[in-house]
Amino acid sequence: MKKNERNTINVGNLLRNYLKDNLIQGQTLANLIGRNGQTVTLYQKHSDMRTETLENICYALEHNFFQDLANHLPSHFTVDARLNAGHNQFIAQLQEENKVLRIQNELLMKL
C-alpha cells in the first residue's frame, strides 16, 4: 500500500481531542511535562510528534496514546507476541476458571 492510499494518523488531533474530552487545559499539560503552553499548542497543531515527547505526555496524563495510534491501524497488522504473552496466559487462566465454575454450576443445579 502506498502512503497516499492510507489514512494518516494525526497525533496532534489525538492529543487535542483527548485534552478537550477530559477538560484538560494545555497549560496544565505544559506544567506536567515541563514545557510552556505555546509548545503544547504546537503539539496539537502538528500531525506528528517524537516518540519520546509522546511518551512523556502519556506518563503525565496516564493515558496510552500509543494504543490510540495502534487502534487506527488495520486489525490484521501483527504485534510482538511477547508483549501479549502475559495477556494470553491470563486469558487461558480465566477460561480454565470459567470451565470449572460452569461444571460446579451444573452440579449445583442438579441438587
CATH homologous superfamily label of the largest domain: lambda repressor-like DNA-binding domains
What fold name goes in the CATH topology slot of the largest domain?
434 Repressor (Amino-terminal Domain)
Mean pLDDT: 90
Question: What is the number of E strands?
Answer: 0
Biggest sheet details: none
* Beta-strand residue fraction: under 5%
Question: Would you identify the CATH architecture of the largest domain?
Answer: Orthogonal Bundle
Task: Compute the number of structural domains.
Answer: 2
Anisotropy-based shape: elongated
Give the termini distance in whole angstroms: 61 Å
**Total helical segments:** 6
Structural class: mainly alpha
Q: What is the CA-based Rg, rounded? A: 21 Å
Query: What percent of residues adopt helix (DSSP H or I)?
Result: 55-70%
Which stretches of 5+ consecutive residues score pLDDT under 50?
none
Instruction: Write down the CATH class of the largest domain.
Output: Mainly Alpha
Structure explained in plain terms:
This protein has about 110 residues and is mainly α. The chain folds into 2 domains: about 5-75, 434 Repressor (Amino-terminal Domain) (Orthogonal Bundle), CATH 1.10.260.40; about 80-110. About 70% of the residues lie in helices and about 0% in strands. The chain contains 6 helices and no strands. It has helices at about 10-20, 25-35, 35-45, 50-60, 65-70, 80-110. The longest helix is centred in the last third of the chain and has 30 residues, at about 80-110. The protein is elongated, with a radius of gyration of 21 Å. It starts with 10 loop residues before the first helix and ends with a helix. The mean pLDDT is about 90.
